[in-house]
């Protein structure tokens, strides 16, 4: 066994409960293991304990053996030999691509770890060259590290760690900050490292959709306890039968299969009548899912395109951009060119688009942070520039940036929110006394926190809470000014399934109250489930627009896994639930194959 | 273009320093105009080196220095006109022309230096004598653009939640201060993460080495010897006083003997090395294409 975790229990200082409780598992040489679980389940803590240089302080019992050597601080207290062993044997890549880079040039970054190991220049030259070639970095070898894209930065971090030739590679949600294309590149690189170089990998990840097909060993952590240790299929069966929240993070094909395994008229379900799922047959990819579908449905169903509600009303849209053009510099090409976009009150509009398609730029134009050089942006029919100083961001428009921590400036979330709410209160009622404002602000803030379920993190520092919690806290701050139009930049990025669903529920409430919500996202699945209207930004223009059904069903590639799976079997199916419903309908022989509900 | 990319950094550094120091301290038209000619010729080969605007501003600066000098210095013996009762002399004008040329030459050589010494070799001396300082500089250079981007993002975020809405400047200053303190928190947090990543990759283990992307080869030795030889010849000529010139009250030049002439030629050659290297590369390509 390359890595053995033996009955590890860990508690942070002053914490009320154990972060890890009696965790035992082992990872053999050459395996690709995935450690999954919701945010705050102890994934990161466990990985950092394995990498002794990053081990957090606290009470630790049990043993952590890497290649037969106990590396815990208790067993090998700050000996440089243990440090050297750990530096050589175990590599780690963390979540944030940016903060892990140490130096200013790519070549120096690759050499950095080797310099630390005290290798001579000749050896470093060879290792760096090998890694650059293996990763295809030659093209940007002489670049500055800050010029790289997020995906390139994370690949560089991986290459820099691998140059040190570790036996075990630890990864802590390495693709959480990347766009889907860069994340797929990164994952395929991991597969290559595992298969071609034989490096053992242990990766923490909560998005199972992408990683389950890659791995052969999954570990499920829940509140510090190891619940499941087995193959992807065993994990899928486990979370499904125990109704664990991670069940909704499973790949679409798996979810469809598990939901219908007893009703499916297929060879695999007839083979097993028992409730025990035949683990090896569980489909994990879109390809497997399509095979499942073609086995289950012997005929093509009639096209079931449901009548879509007429989307746009005739009243003035809440936010409208028309013919907007923008470029960062006179000599640079247009980022946005004749972009036209409308969002109505009470609508959740999701704008999708690839990396660098100008989504974030468009958002900052719509928020009035940048000005287009042609075209206009109007809020309720009034130009943004026509709003008097200090009225635009009060009860009108608010923007939640991509990094939610950017909105926080104080030492605790409570202080920050109080500031925002008292500003809002003194604006709403200019004549109120200071104490009345303070009381009202406090009451308003508590009500908002109640609503967003963040009362228990109010006294934490904004950097100490999980991504999903911080996202909600930032949303609370942004909502303090009671905006009628809410702009969100990548709201579903890096948060786990529970967080995503919760966020969507909050947005649904807001739209029901008549707020217009525009979110910019890479996440097709999220947009399909929760948007009222979707648009695709490409080459500086919104090129296709429509309700999620019309939008995703018309796309062949840029669409949800459910739609790709359903394809011509069940046209019009976009989300996983719809596919399950459509298939159970088909299985019962009902004439209507799809019942698409808006 | 990167004529010295594969050379040891000492080679372009020696060339640059000898050209620059002589141009600054020789105070001799022969040296000054050699330096200027070398820089201009090399600059012409750089893509985007000269633009209409930059040429105009260089010439304007030169002209300004030349024309303004006689207004302050009235030491010359040959007045051209009288400005406000003060003589505007030919000698002072020529001194201005020389001074302007020297300033321009130094300026242009500094701009050439960016091309001559590859960026990754610029911290060669730090890397050799103060490796920790070199690493510090490298990580600071990485961090500054990051910090700037984060500062913009944070300011935008604060604007969009209405923090900057108060029109008076006291409030704005306060808001800026708040953003700054948030930025400080962010950089500390970022530093912790970077520190963790450094430690995880073995930083702090004993016996750290410094990776050099260059080696000192025999060719580097030849180059260095040639450059230092030419520079020595020029210094010798200068030391003999054969290049001396005095502008006031009349322009008097020293008698130039053979050794002085050789020294000037050596300096001119030194200044032409970058240009000639580019030409050599161009010719090599021409022949290469012809043979294909």
How does this structure look, described?
The complex is a heterodimer of chains A (598) and B (292). Chain A contains 20 helices and 20 strands. With 598 residues, chain A is of the alpha/beta class. Chain A has 3 domains: 239 residues, P-loop containing nucleotide triphosphate hydrolases (Rossmann fold), CATH 3.40.50; 80 residues, no CATH class; 243 residues, P-loop containing nucleotide triphosphate hydrolases (Rossmann fold), CATH 3.40.50. In chain A, the strands form 4 sheets. Chain A has a 6-stranded mixed sheet, with helices on both faces. A 6-stranded mixed sheet of chain A has the order 16-17-18-13-19-20, sandwiched between helices. In chain A, strand 14 and strand 15 form a beta hairpin. Chain A is globular and about 70 Å long. Chain B has 292 residues and is mainly α. Chain B has one domain. In chain B, 70% of the residues lie in helices and 4% in strands. In chain B, the strands form 2 sheets. Chain B has a two-stranded antiparallel ribbon. In chain B, strand 1 and strand 2 form a beta hairpin. In chain B, helix 1 packs antiparallel against helix 4, helix 2 crosses helix 4 and helix 6 crosses helix 7. At the A-B interface, helix 2, helix 3, helix 4, helix 5 and strand 16 of A face helix 6 and helix 7 of B.
How would you concisely characterize the structure shown here?
Chain A is α/β, with parallel strands linked by helices and 598 residues long. Chain A has helices spanning 43-50, 80-89, 106-116, 121-135, 150-162, 180-196, 208-211, 232-241, 252-260, 267-271, 286-296, 359-366, 413-428, 434-452, 467-479, 497-512, 524-530, 548-554, 561-566, 576-587; strands at residues 3-11, 20-27, 32-36, 59-66, 69-70, 90-93, 168-172, 200-204, 217-222, 225-230, 319-326, 336-343, 348-352, 374-379, 382-383, 397-400, 485-489, 516-521, 533-538, 541-546.
């Amino acid at each position: 066994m390359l890595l053995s975790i033996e009955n590890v229990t860990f508690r942070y200082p002053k914490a009320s409960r154990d972060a890890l409780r009696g965790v035992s598992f082992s990872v053999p040489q050459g395996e690709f293991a995935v450690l999954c679980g919701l945010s705050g389940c102890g994934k990161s803590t466990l990985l950092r304990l394995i990498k002794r240089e990053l081990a957090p302080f606290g009470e630790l019992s049990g043993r952590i053996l890497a290649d037969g050597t106990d590396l815990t601080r208790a067993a090998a207290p700050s000996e440089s030999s243990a440090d050297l062993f750990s530096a050589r044997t175990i590599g780690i890549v963390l979540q944030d691509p940016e903060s892990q880079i140490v130096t200013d040039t790519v070549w120096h970054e690759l050499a950095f770890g080797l310099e630390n190991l005290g290798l001579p220049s000749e050896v470093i030259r060879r290792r760096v060259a090998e890694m650059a070639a293996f990763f295809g970095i030659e093209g940007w070898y002489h670049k500055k590290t800050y010029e790289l894209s997020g995906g390139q930065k994370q690949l560089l971090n991986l290459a820099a760690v691998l140059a040190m030739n570790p036996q075990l590679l630890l990864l802590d949600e390495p693709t959480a900050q990347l766009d889907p294309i860069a994340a797929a590149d990164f994952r395929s690189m991991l597969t290559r490292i595992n298969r071609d170089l034989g490096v053992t990998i242990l990766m923490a990840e909560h998005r199972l959709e992408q990683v389950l097909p890659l791995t052969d060993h999954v570990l499920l952590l829940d509140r510090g306890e190891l619940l499941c240790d087995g193959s992807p299929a065993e994990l899928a069966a486990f979370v499904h039968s125990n109704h664990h929240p991670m069940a909704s993070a499973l790949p679409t094909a798996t979810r469809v299969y598990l939901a219908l395994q007893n009703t499916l008229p297929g060879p695999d379900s007839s083979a097993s009548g028992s409730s025990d799922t035949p683990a090896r047959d569980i489909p994990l990819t879109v390809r497997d899912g399509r095979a499942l579908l073609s086995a289950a449905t012997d005929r093509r169903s009639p096209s079931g395109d449901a009548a879509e509600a007429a989307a746009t009303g005739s009243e003035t849209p809440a936010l409208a951009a028309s013919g907007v053009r923008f470029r960062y510099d006179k000599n640079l090409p247009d980022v946005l060119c004749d972009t036209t976009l409308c969002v109505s009150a009470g609508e959740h509009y999701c704008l999708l688009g690839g990396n660098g398609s100008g989504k974030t730029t468009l958002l900052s134009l719509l928020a009035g942070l940048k000005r287009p050089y042609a075209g206009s942006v109007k809020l309720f029919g009034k130009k943004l520039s026509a709003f008097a100083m200090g009225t635009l961001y009060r009860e009108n428009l608010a923007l939640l940036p991509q990094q939610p921590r950017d909105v926080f400036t104080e030492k605790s979330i409570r202080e920050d929110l109080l500031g925002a709410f008292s500003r809002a209160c003194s604006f709403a009622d200019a004549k109120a006394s200071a104490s009345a404002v303070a009381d009202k602000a406090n009451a308003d803030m508590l009500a908002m926190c109640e609503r967003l379920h963040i009362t228990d993190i109010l006294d934490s520092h904004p950097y100490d809470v999980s991504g999903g919690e911080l996202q909600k806290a930032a949303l609370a701050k942004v909502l303090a000014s009671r905006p009628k139009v809410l702009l969100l930049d990548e709201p579903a990025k890096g948060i786990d399934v529970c967080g995503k669903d919760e966020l969507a529920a909050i947005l649904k409430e807001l739209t029901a109250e008549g707020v217009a919500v525009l979110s910019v996202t890479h996440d097709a699945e999220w947009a399909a489930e929760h948007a009222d209207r979707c648009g695709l930004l490409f080459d500086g223009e919104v090129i296709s627009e429509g309700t999620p059904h019309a939008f995703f069903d018309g796309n062949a590639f840029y669409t949800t896994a459910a739609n790709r799976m359903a394809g011509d079997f069940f046209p019009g199916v976009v989300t996983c639930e719809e596919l399950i419903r459509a298939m159970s309908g088909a299985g019962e022989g009902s004439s209507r194959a799809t019942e698409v509900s808006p | 273009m990167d004529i010295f990319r594969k050379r040891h950094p000492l080679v372009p550094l020696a060339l640059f320093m000898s050209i620059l120091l002589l141009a600054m301290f020789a105070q001799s038209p022969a040296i000054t105009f050699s330096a200027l000619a070398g820089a201009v010729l090399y600059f012409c080969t750089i893509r985007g080196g000269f633009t209409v605007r930059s040429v105009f501003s260089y010439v304007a600066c030169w002209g300004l220095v030349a024309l303004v000098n006689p207004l302050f210095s009235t030491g010359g013996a040959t007045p051209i006109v009288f400005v406000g009762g003060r003589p505007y002399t030919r000698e002072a004008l020529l001194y201005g022309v020389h001074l302007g040329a020297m300033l321009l030459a130094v300026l242009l050589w500094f701009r050439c230096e960016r091309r001559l010494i590859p960026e990754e070799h610029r911290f060669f001396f730090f890397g050799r004598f103060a490796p920790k300082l070199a690493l510090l500089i490298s990580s600071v250079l990485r961090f500054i653009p990051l910090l700037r981007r984060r500062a913009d993002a944070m300011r935008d975020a604060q604007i969009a939640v209405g923090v900057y809405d108060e029109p008076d400047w006291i409030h704005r200053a306060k808001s800026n201060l708040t953003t700054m303190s948030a930025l400080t928190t962010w950089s500390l947090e970022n530093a912790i993460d970077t520190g963790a990543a450094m430690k995880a990759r073995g930083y702090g283990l004993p016996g750290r080495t410094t990776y050099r992307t260059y080696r000192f080869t025999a060719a580097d030795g030849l180059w260095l010897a040639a450059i230092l030889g030419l520079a020595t010849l020029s210094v010798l000529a200068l030391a003999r006083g054969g290049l001396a010139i005095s502008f006031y009250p009349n322009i008097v030049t020293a008698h130039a003997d053979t050794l002085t002439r050789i020294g000037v030629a050596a300096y001119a050659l030194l200044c032409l090395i970058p240009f000639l290297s580019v030409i050599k590369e161009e010719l090599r390509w021409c022949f290469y294409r012809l043979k294909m």
